[in-house]
Specification:
Blueprint lengths: L1 H42 L2 H34 L2 H35 L1 H4 L1 H30 L4 E3 L5 E3 L2 H5 L2 H31 L4 H37 L1 H8 L10 E8 L4 E8 L2 H7 L21 H30 L7 H9 L3 H17 L2 E3 L3 E2 H4 L6 H32 L17
Antiparallel strand pairs: 1-2, 3-4, 5-6
């Protein structure tokens, strides 16, 4: 059973990590495509309309990949985690079904209309379809985050005589306080992803001396949305989500910060290596009192360390949780610096000619994906050893009849399938980027000003 649990967790982590690279990008890109189309409707500048079409094609490729890679996740609830599904199915089945029945069908229907209906139905319907794709995509994110938020902070249920649980307050689940800040933080991360990709591609085109008009639009929209989203990740969403973790999962907060002993006041460890065996941080670089203030707005507040909680309730992998959290926060800080500097250069009219900044933006494209992956690792590792925090332990949720060999076999199959799909995705993206946004035979015009 322990081997089956280990391999099941490995398989789920692999499929989740691979799958969520695509939805995180598409959720942010859906907003930016809507922004591009809206600017076109207001200005009549055809470059914005063609830009919306181009990024709509990028969205469609990523959307299809997200759908296909998400299918194994649905099956794993029944194959690998049958005990968990039986215990919580009355609740999580509701939100996952709503994601499929409402949000997914909304976005999938209007994606087709956006891609193929512009000439037949006109610009207003085309703009409306971009709005519906945006709402449907973010609706999918809402219902998925609601499911995860319930696992992080179970609410709206009652325990039955047979030991299972059932839903007794639907609105408590849909309006879970944990969901609010997790959703807003997650969507901010999605926009950061899309903004860096859009700005980075614009930088690539300028460095390659091609598609100048489109490149400037990509940089403009990408940098403006990127600086707003990066700051949004810091405050208010990052701040208030951290307060929620401190309130509902204090042991998780202690592990994230590498705080083994209760401190008053408590400092933030910027750098250092956690030594779980000796319960200390090696080579620490600490900002004194900062953690007390950030969590409780009190420079002298007490912050509980891991020693204040039973060891069996500590997160399973404290070093990985600690490093994931610090990678997320560290990269997020760098994103703010990069985008603020790029926005300053854009405001001064020097961005398009600053090759060093263009190189930074282009090379930064992969890092928001790494930061978002580290963020999800932080959320899921922090919840351990619980599937439903404080209610249902991970070791209780694995399917009782499944063997580790069967799970390993399917893991190898998924890895092979995802490798082929990943290569196909790269080929399609390279082809689309190489072709560029310019319609065949279309002359380019240079948009003037920051809002052109």
């Amino acid at each position: 059973m322990e081997d089956a649990l280990l391999v099941s967790r490995l398989q789920f982590a692999f499929t989740v990590t691979y799958h969520y690279l695509f939805p995180m990008f598409t959720m942010g890109l859906a907003l930016l495509v809507f922004v591009l189309k809206t600017i076109y409707m207001r200005t009549g500048n055809d470059l914005y309309n063609e830009s919306a079409r181009f990024w709509g094609r990028i969205f469609a490729i990523s959307f299809v990949m997200g759908v296909v890679t998400g299918i194994p996740l649905e099956f794993q609830f029944g194959t690998n985690w049958a005990a968990f599904s039986a215990f919580t199915g009355d609740i999580i089945a509701q939100t996952l079904a709503m994601e499929g029945a409402f949000a997914f069908f909304l976005e999938s229907a209007f994606v087709g209309l956006f891609l193929f209906g512009e000439r037949r139905f006109g610009q207003r319907v085309h703009w409306f379809s971009s709005l519906m794709v945006f709402l449907g995509t973010w609706g999918s994110g809402y219902f998925i985050i609601t499911t995860n938020a319930w696992m992080q902070n179970p609410v709206g249920y009652r325990v039955l005589e047979n030991g299972n649980i059932e839903l007794n307050d639907y609105w408590a689940v849909l309006l879970n306080p944990w969901m609010v800040w997790q959703f807003l933080h997650n969507m901010g991360g999605a926009v950061v992803c899309a903004a860096f990709v859009m700005a980075g591609l614009g930088a690539f085109y300028l460095l390659s001396e091609r598609d100048h008009g489109y490149a400037r639009i990509f940089l403009k929209v990408g940098v403006v949305s990127g600086v707003l989203a990066s700051l949004w990740m810091l405050f208010p969403t990052g701040h208030f989500h951290s307060e929620m973790v401190a309130e509902e999962q204090p042991a998780t907060l202690a592990a994230m910060e590498g705080l083994f002993e209760t401190e008053q006041p408590a400092g933030i460890v910027i750098l250092g290596q956690p030594d779980v065996e000796n319960r200390t941080i090696d080579n620490p670089l600490v900002v004194p009192r900062a953690l007390s203030f950030l969590i409780y707005q009190n420079w002298n507040a007490e912050v509980k360390g891991l020693e204040a909680f039973p060891e069996e309730n500590w997160p399973d992998n404290i070093p990985l949780l600690y490093y994931s959290y610090h990678v997320m926060v560290g990269l997020g800080t760098i994103f703010i610096a990069v985008m603020v500097l790029a926005a300053f250069l854009l405001w001064r009219g020097r961005l398009y000619g600053s090759r060093w900044m263009l190189w930074i933006l282009m090379l930064a494209i992969p890092f928001p994906f790494i930061a978002n992956t580290a963020g999800w690792l932080t959320a899921e590792l922090g919840r351990q050893p619980w599937l439903a925090y404080g209610l249902f332990r991970t070791e209780e949720g694995v399917s009782p009849l499944i063997s580790s060999g069967s799970v390993l076999f399917t893991l190898i199959g998924f890895a092979g399938m995802y490798l082929i799909m990943g290569l196909l995705y790269i080929v399609l993206m390279v082809r689309e980027v190489s072709h560029g946004p310019q319609a065949e035979g279309e002359p380019q015009e240079e948009p003037g000003g920051v809002t052109a």
